[in-house]
Amino acid sequence: MSKANYFRYMAEFGSDAEREGAADNSLEAYKIAMETAEGGLSPTNMVRLGLALNFSIFNYGILKSTEER
């Protein structure tokens, strides 16, 4: 999750040249983290819930999307 958050912050606050690559890296890291969390953590696990929240913030704030990816 830290890797995904790092790239999310880079996409949010980085230069224009860094944003697209950082957003792509963040999306990939969030997808891997979500797959891992769904495979080993209960739906009510605090880490899994925090990951889902951060991923939704990324989708809305960086990708400007309200749909699941």
From TrEMBL:
The record's section on InterPro entries has:
14-3-3 (IPR000308), 14-3-3_dom_sf (IPR036815), 14-3-3_domain (IPR023410)
Q: Which residues form a coiled coil?
A: none
Record-linked SUPFAM superfamilies:
14-3-3 protein (SSF48445)
All copies of domain 14-3-3, residue ranges: 3-68
Signal peptide extent: none
Q: Name one Pfam family in it.
A: 14-3-3
Family per similarity comment: Belongs to the 14-3-3 family.
What PANTHER family does the record tag this protein with? Answer: 14-3-3 PROTEIN
The protein's name is 14-3-3 domain-containing protein
Task: Provide the organism lineage as a comma list.
Answer: Eukaryota, Viridiplantae, Streptophyta, Embryophyta, Tracheophyta
